[in-house]
Amino acid sequence: MTRRSLLGSAMSFFALAACKAEAATKSFAVNLSEAEWRRRLKPEQFAVLRRHATERPGSSGLNAEKRAGGYACAGCGHPLFSSRTKFESGTGWPSFWQPLGGAVGTRTDRSLMFARTEVHCARCGGHLGHVFKDGPKPTGLRYCMNGDAMTFRAAA
């Protein structure tokens, strides 16, 4: 391991720790202990929502979901996105050009060597993914979400 790679790893670790500390200090309508989250969520959901992990691209069935309906937070059930704003981004993750009003919050994520905009559930603070400025019209945004962070309910 080179000195540069060691330094980069250390910087990423401390940046991620700072992001998690920021999330832990913010108050959300749904606040559960780590043990309660672990009981409520599947291991892969816990890793994404509570530990800011990222699922493998192409691994979520929600990426291929084409039916009309809505996407909600897998942690607390809060509605997040409508299927009307979903699009195929070619990234391997479910992508949307706009969330529902008041559904998500954002914060700066410095866990990599550059700043990104993290997206989290406005109700429980669960990590959903990131938003980028390379999406389609009308917003030009790409909300690149982890399928493990969401559930889907087909329209009736």
Automatic annotation (TrEMBL):
It is an enzyme of class 1 (oxidoreductase). One of its GO terms (biological process) is response to oxidative stress. GO terms for cellular component: cytoplasm. Residues 1-23 form the signal peptide. Keywords: Oxidoreductase, Signal. Residues 34-155 form the MsrB domain. Pfam families: SelR (PF01641). It catalyses: L-methionyl-[protein] + [thioredoxin]-disulfide + H2O = L-methionyl-(R)-S-oxide-[protein] + [thioredoxin]-dithiol. Its EC number is 1.8.4.12. The keyword Phosphoprotein does not apply. GO terms for molecular function: peptide-methionine (R)-S-oxide reductase activity. NCBIfam families: peptide-methionine (R)-S-oxide reductase MsrB. This is peptide-methionine (R)-S-oxide reductase. It comes from uncultured Sphingomonadaceae bacterium.
